[in-house]
Structure prediction request, 741 residues.
Amino acid sequence: MTTLDSSKEIQKNNSEVNEEHDDFRMFGLITFLIADGMTFAGFFAAYLTYKAVNPLPDGAIYELELPIPTLNTILLLVSSATFHKAGKALLKDKNSDSQKWLFFTAFLGIIFLICQLFEYFHLPFGLTDNLFASTFYALTGFHGLHVTLGTLMILIITWQSRINGGRITSQNMFPLEAVELYWHFVDGIWVILFIILYLL
Amino acid sequence: MTLSIDPQKTNNESLQPKGWLRYFSFSLDHKVIGIQYLVCGFLFYLIGGTLASAIRIELASPMSDFMPRDVYNQVLTLHGTIMIFLWIVPVVNGAFGNYLIPFYVGARDMAFPRLNAVAFWLIPPSGLMLVASYFVEGAAQAGWTAYPPLSITTPQSGQIIWILSVLLLGGSSIFGGINFIATIIKLRRPGLKLMQLPMYCWAMLGTSILVVLSTPVLAGTLILLSFDIIANTGFFNPVLGGNVVVYQHLFWFYSHPAVYIMVLPAFGLVSEILPVHARKPLFGYTTMVFSIMGIVVLGLVVWAHHMFTSGTPPWMRLFFTIATAFIAVPTGIKFFNWVATLWGGKISINSAMLFSCGFIINFVFGGITGVALAQVPFDIHVHDTYFVVAHFHYIVYGGTVFIIFSSIYHWFPKVTGKMLNEKLGILHFIITFIGFNLCFAPQHWLGLNGMPRRVAEYDPQFQFVNQISSLGALLMAISTIPFLINVFLSVRNGKDAGDNPWNALTPEWLTSSPPPVENWEGEAPLVEEPYGYGKQFSEQK
Prediction:
């Protein structure tokens, strides 16, 4: 095994070569989100197939109320906008503004989850009642898991973008940008889910 | 924006354990991770091979006398799952991909070294969990396909452990795929164009695209299946209004591309090995690239040819038959390109070359039976018979595993700086080749005559042919012995290989063997013609 006796020189060459690479972390994240999106695509495909070929038995209850999910859609869309505001504020080195926007985004996420749970408790069907019910809970539950993780990550980056000692600054925007992209992705999935599950 | 954190600096040598201990550490070095994948995969290959031998011993007689029927079902399920998810996929992607891709793109490590280590360390625990599930009220019994309602009605704990294990392995595979795509697209040495990359990079790019697009669908499907088993939902349970065919569609949406995930990297590896040992440029580089991408696109839209007997409507049968037949075109192009690469070359007969030629022979046979199986009338006749088993093993053992051995013979000098013993290598090839064909060629006949797969007992008229097959399996088991002896002897006191024993031109040979931690002393070389054999050797750097 060759040792790194000329390590300084290698390090120098190394950093020279590396400086010419673009930041590929965002590229990796996008690839991951494509993979994650394919999981949802599989669920959607299963749901639509069931809807087309598996008629529910007579008397099965599958009515959904629209007000709560519509409110949830608005909540998530607004939260995407507030997250964007947070990024803009951080870019201008206004960390405390950025933190306020981030906290507001996380707050909207938590309200979304509370509304979702409220809907779960007031629906007339349970997980195992019929095929529609199972698919409904699997889809919204899997999405809710994503919202939960996203909210936790937003709270973490809110703490990390504090003025003294925070890692996230206008020079190191990547964590915020990564969570922002993830959050937009989760919102986009919700819009598709809302259309397919509630409106179709 | 440039990268502020240099991932390679995290790979500080002083922080890493030295010697053989580093293979048991959370090492971030792509070469260490590659070897971890290979050795771990080979250990599971030995377990899966033992299970295969148990299957062939059982099938040497028509009655189930060697083991009870439910144990037989567990053995065949574990055999399939271990061989696919713990041996072929991790080794042909993870092991060779991690070892070679950074060299080929001129990088010092993979794009995400930590993610890479995580991807590897998911494998041993899930593999052990899978093997250990035999001791908890029996392992899964529903085959590697885990079709419901069978997987719902068989004992549950084994099946749930199976699902958990496959989910973890799928996660490992996705992390690996993301890493390969990012490395090949984003981490190329400045000045290196995509069309100058060695063919294995293209194969891994195509494979990783398939991994990223299809593996998550399997994960979602298995989550739904576990709900059916644990929470008593009815996604795939007809009694509760579910639909088993939906499971089959979602499962094969992953598992047909999975065949390409297993065989495309082998296409890439054989394209690296043949030019070196035939001293000729790879024939038809551009057509190779386009046929790999063609296989990727077509591979995503042929899954329902596994389901011709599942009540598939006629239009679907028509579409999937035609799409499947189309795959023969890019595959055929690749086959003829390999033959043309050998044609008129200065061929050296060594173990790596022999295994590669064995691959070409076996693979064309498996490919032809594959085209036959795509035809609906024929498929309905032989569906779920030993014909399918024979076809599959011709692709995956005769194809991919032959290439894994070929690659081990080819790159062993690179990894260790020692040569493998050629005599033992050729002996290994002869026993493997004869044993493999003796084992699986008769199974075509068995299938055509109606012997069903996955059943411990069979009609006594098939006994003689089954015994021939079992004899072949015995030879295959024996063939591992010269290989293991060879590896152990050569690691300790093999002949010194020098830096480039094959006079190869691909970038991994342009550094010392074994390579230094950062792959190159100094800047990575720019290899514009990785297959420029037959030209003046001095023109190449």
Observations:
- The longest helix of chain A spans residues 131-160.
